[in-house]
Amino acid sequence: MPTDVPSAKSPFDASTERVERVLCFTAHPDDIDFGAAGTIAAWTAAGVHVSYCIMTDGDAGGFDPVDRERIIELRVEEQERAAALVGVTDIHYLHERDGYLEPTHGVIKQVVKLIREIRPDIVLTMHPERNWDRLQKSHPDHLAAGEAVTRAVYPAVENPFAYPELAEAGLDAFKLPWLWFISSPESRENHFVDVSGHVDAKLQAIRVHASQHPDIEGMERVVRAMMLGNGERAGLPAGASAEYFHVVAVNGSTTIAGF
C-alpha cells in the first residue's frame, strides 16, 4: 500500500482500510499521470487492481499542427504506454469531445455503469470546485468530470431505482466506500501520500505524453518541485515527495444511509 501521511483531517486510514480495486476517472489522457501516478504506482506494486476511465479523447490537446489528423490515436497510444509504466492495463474511454464535456445524464449513466461493473473500494477523480490559486487545474472538462462522477457516486450508484435499465441488465446498486479527488483547492486537501519511492515512475509516465509538452525538461523540473512542496506541506522529512488528495468518505462507519 502507499505510505499515507497521518493527518487529523484525513478520514482515510491506510492501516485499517483494505483496498483491492481502484477506479480513476479523468477528463483527458495525461490528467491521471500528473495528479496521481505516484500513488497509483504504489497501489499496483502492492497488488491493488487499478482501472482508468478517460472521459474525452483529448482531441483539442497538443501543440504541433502535424499531429492533428491522428491526435486521438496518438493520445490513446500515449495513455496506454504511460499506464503500463505504473502497472495499469485496464483502460476505458467515454469518447466525449475535448472541451465539450458536461455532467449530462448520458455521461453520468456511463459512469454509474462502470462503477457498478468494477465495484471499486476507491473512485478517484478530478475536483469539481474551481481552484483560483492555479486556474490551470480547473479546465472546464476537469470540473465537469468531477461533477459527473460526484453525481454518479451519490446517489445514483447506490440507488437501485436510478437508471433502472442498469439493474435490469444485472448491474446491481453498489455502495462506494471512498471518493478521492485530485487537483483540489489547497483548502480542501486532507490526505497526503508519500510517493518518494515512485517519483521516477510518475515522471516516466508523464514524459510519455510528449504530444502535450513542448518543453519536457521544464515540465519535469516543475513537477519535481511541486512534489517536493507537497512533501513539505505534509510534514515529511526534507527531500520527500508527496501527492495530495481531498478524500471523502461516502459509505463508512460515520455515514448514515439517506443523510
Concise overview:
With 259 residues, the chain is α/β, with parallel strands linked by helices. It has helices spanning 31-45, 71-85, 105-118, 140-153, 164-168, 199-208, 216-233, and strands spanning 3-5, 21-26, 49-56, 90-96, 122-126, 178-182, 191-194, 242-249.
Task: Describe what you observe in this structure.
Strands 1-7-8-6-5-2-3-4 form an 8-stranded mixed beta sheet, with helices on both faces. The protein has one domain: 3-Layer(aba) Sandwich (Rossmann fold). It has 7 helices and 8 strands; from the N terminus they run ββαβαβαβααββααβ. It has 259 residues and is of the alpha/beta class. Strand 2, helix 1 and strand 3 form a beta-alpha-beta unit.
Q: CATH fold name, please? A: Rossmann fold
Distance between the termini: 31 Å
Q: What is the averaged pLDDT score?
A: 93
Q: Regarding CATH, which class?
A: Alpha Beta
Order of helices and strands: EEHEHEHEHHEEHHE
Helix fraction bin = 25-40%
Main sheet strand line-up: 1-7-8-6-5-2-3-4
Return the domain count.
1
How much of the polypeptide forms β-strand, as a percent range? 15-25%
| Poorly predicted spans | none
* Largest sheet features: 8 strands, mixed
- Radius of gyration (Å): 18 Å
Number of helices: 7
- Which architecture does the CATH hierarchy give at level 2? 3-Layer(aba) Sandwich
Shape: globular
Strand-pairing-aware structural class: alpha/beta
Per CATH, the superfamily is: LmbE-like
Q: What's the total count of β strands?
A: 8
Organism: Paenarthrobacter nitroguajacolicus (Arthrobacter nitroguajacolicus)
Protein name: PIG-L family deacetylase
GO molecular function: hydrolase activity, acting on carbon-nitrogen (but not peptide) bonds, in linear amides
Keywords: Zinc
